[in-house]
Amino acid sequence: MTSKIRKAIFPAAGLGTRFLPATKASPKEMLPLVDKPLIQYSVEEAVNSGIESILIITGRDKSAIENHFDISFELEQLLKEKGKTAMFDQVRAVSDIAKVSYTRQKQALGLGHAIYQAKDFVGNEPFAALLADDLVDAETPALKQMIDVFEKYNAPVIATMQVEGEAISRFGVIDAEEIEPNVFRVNDMVEKPAFADAPSDLAIIGRYIFTPDIFQAIEKTTPGAGGEIQITDAMRLLLKERPFYAVKLDGRRHDAGDKLGFLIATVEYALKRDDLGGDFREYLRSIDLNS
Ligand code: UTP
Is the CB of residue 57 below 6 angstroms from any atom belonging to ligand 1? Predict the structure, then answer.
């Protein structure tokens, strides 16, 4: 088994019910955060972390994702004719970003089932899985932070972040020991525990590095909550056979698959933009928040 992480998969076949009605006919991964669709941020994160080849697992009504990473011939032609070189370069850069392929998850039977659709693409290599609605704004790309841990321990790595108080109940949570600053060896994990039962304040977020034995674990996983094959259940099975590590990411995470999380991310990302931040900040200052 090669130990270099060359491949990343993006499960994007979920129904996005938290963002209805916008997600009725359009994929949530294509919601524009400032001016880029959500999924482009994590694809860029993967590429900036050294990923060479990408598989996006799509479902019905997701063809906009494929079109986004494809060449848009008519648009490019038009921009060229009008001499809009900067826009042309921007549009072309998206299709040149990486080698992207697609497969379909025919039914939304859970994240574990979606990841299983990548079995042939992955072959016998470790690989990364990124959930596009979890945005991580970080100086060192989140996936790169995880790859560094993988390269040291040669075992699966889960991304986590600290969540204060009762909000921990909305996440998968790890029970783990810190073995070096911000790196943990995982003993166990539980999905959405009651606050009182949470084994730690470290929540699992949407970035994983798996070894190919995750596929055998998914095969052995019986459907859990909602008839879905949960990736946490598959990881727990595998945890009986091999060590798992977790990293507490250095960065700010946004749940952009949630309406409020998306609004917060939009404001923060817009404020950071050189071309928009100044005017936007001025506008925000002018709002009377007490009315
Ligand atoms: P979520 O739990 O966010 O579910 O899935 P969702 O369907 O996308 O959104 P809500 O909760 O209904 O609003 C986590 C990730 O797993 C993918 C989703 O696309 C998302 O990236 N997923 C989930 C699949 O690809 N297939 C599934 O069957 C379920």
Answer: yes
